[in-house]
């Protein structure tokens, strides 16, 4: 395994981050294909053996049971100081707003629940999961800064935002003396490269770590179309929503991944992730079988030639936004986000 510094932080992370969305009680969340605690533990144990020290979960994953499975496994299998744990918080609910729970109090409630789920005193990285158009950004940044100062989170990151949102957020944080976002977890892989327009160059300029999710496009970049379909492939309707509409053009890229993998005598997973590793700090790679994390670890050692990289990239055409990013907009298109307190609209 290889390691690197996570953006403007002191965290040293493995080049592969294990994504834990596939762990959790399948009866308690949005996904029917997640795996139980025994099998989750086996995969986490194998990741540790392979040198993976970076683990990503969220309070939203299977009603917090992903956090619980991860926390119990790491507490018995690793020293706390040897692993980097990231989790995420959700926006305020309509009930929170109705009950006048501020952005600051909401974040305090969220981190306390996640720490209880994990059985930990702190997380290394606390991630703003998706943009909250109903809460002033000042309140969110203030709330995050408070938990950093309290030692409940070492650093903060963000997910599912546009480059202009991240730039304005960090500018506001700097002006107020708050903790700044050191990482971005966006949707980025060989089949979806829209992050290259604004986010990638901005993060290179600011040394913000890129830790993209859906690194293998929900498994599509790890196998030929229709080959060895998994329970997730059959039941993950959200992934189908993100990728099925562009399948025809994406299959051209997938066929090139397969072609290079065959020539090099490696797996499609290794080729797809080796390409992404030339672009980002540490991709978040989901694993629900041992060979998933084993293939991801092997990708760190694979170096593609410039000709292979160009061959993989050449068929790409612009894609429409899909998934959470397609929903990153106010309910009323005429409204602007409240960036600061006192109803001062800075948008």
What does this structure look like?
The protein is 40% helix and 12% strand. The chain is globular. It is built from 13 helices and ten strands. The protein has helices at 37-49, 65-77, 94-98, 103-118, 137-149, 163-176, 199-206, 231-235, 237-243, 247-264, 268-277, 290-299, 306-313, and strands at residues 3-5, 12-14, 17-19, 54-56, 84-89, 123-128, 153-159, 181-185, 209-210, 284-286. Helix 10 packs antiparallel against helix 13. The strands form two sheets. It has an eight-stranded parallel sheet, covered by helices on one side. A two-stranded antiparallel ribbon has the order 1-2. Strand 1 and strand 2 form a beta hairpin. It has 347 residues and is α/β, with parallel strands linked by helices.
List keywords for this structure.
347 residues, 13 helices, eight-stranded parallel beta sheet, alpha/beta, 12% strand
Rg, nearest Å: 20 Å
Total strands: the figure is 10
Main sheet: strands, sense, barrel = 8 strands, parallel
Beta-strand proportion: 5-15%
What is the overall silhouette?
Answer: globular
Termini distance? 43 Å
Structural class: alpha/beta
Task: Describe the strand arrangement of the main beta sheet, using strand numbers.
Answer: 9-8-7-6-5-4-3-10
Query: How do the SSEs run, as a string of H and E?
Result: EEEHEHEHHEHEHEHEHHHHEHH
